[in-house]
């Protein structure tokens, strides 16, 4: 389970550099914000400011870009990412490996953290939030949040191969016993198969271990459903904010108001 983020004082209480303010407001990246300032497109309290050392007080100063008023994001963010392969599910990595923080708007939404994790080679739906209550609630086993994966495995699956997965009781190496899963065969190829599996647990490498346990090692793994949320046509490597209906469905699922 991802840790609940620490509660830090809001930066709205302190003056900050103008380019940082613009980035946190979602106008552009910090570097692009510096270009906007240098180009004379940013006003502070009605005065064009081109100096990159300019500081603003978010509580008192009016900032406009091309005449449009902008303000800091205030509230909780809820974001869906279509994670590509090759990224680890962490917001930083001491070894310099690509991590999902590079793909989501951390400047605009400080404090974003992922809900759960996907392996480095696994693709698909990954949720992020700044809400310290939503994450633990969604990941708690009591809520039985269904997660659906599309999987490509080695070998030709047969219906009888899926019986141990559907029946439940498979024991993972660390001793955890799997609950029954919903599994279907989607496609058969030469030496490989595609299947869909829905589980409500979230044990480390669980789907890979389950298929490996029936003699069909996983070749590709993709998550496209998390509870009431569907990835849909969101391009790989792209993110979007959840809709009001999606957020309402998550709150209904977790019992959060």
What does it look like?
With 257 residues, the chain is α+β, with helices and mostly antiparallel strands. It contains 6 helices and 15 strands. Strands 7, 8, 9, 10, 11, 12, 13, 14 and 15 form a 9-stranded mixed β-sheet that branches. A 4-stranded antiparallel β-sheet has the order 3-2-5-6, with no helix packed on it. It is elongated and about 75 Å long.
Assembly state of the chains shown:
single chain
Shape: elongated
Contiguous runs where pLDDT drops below 50 for at least 5 residues: 1-12
Structural class: alpha+beta
Write down the secondary-structure element order: EHHEEEEEEEEHEHEEHEEEH
The radius of gyration computed from the alpha-carbon positions, rounded to a whole number of angstroms, is: 22 Å
Number of separate strands: 15
Q: Describe the biggest sheet?
A: 9 strands, mixed
Kindly estimate the percentage of residues that lie in beta strands according to DSSP: 25-35%
> How far apart, in Å, are the first and last alpha carbons?
22 Å
Instruction: Report the average pLDDT across residues.
Output: 88
User: How many DSSP H or I helices?
Assistant: 6
Q: What is the topology?
A:
Blueprint: E1 16-17, H1 18-24, H2 30-38, E2 42-44, E3 47-48, E4 55-56, E5 63-65, E6 68-70, E7 78-83, E8 113-114, E9 123-129, H3 134-139, E10 147-154, H4 163-167, E11 182-188, E12 192-199, H5 206-213, E13 218-226, E14 229-230, E15 239-241, H6 244-254
Parallel strand pairs: 9-13
Antiparallel strand pairs: 1-4, 2-3, 2-5, 5-6, 7-9, 7-15, 8-9, 10-12, 10-13, 11-12, 13-14
Helix pairs in contact: 1-2
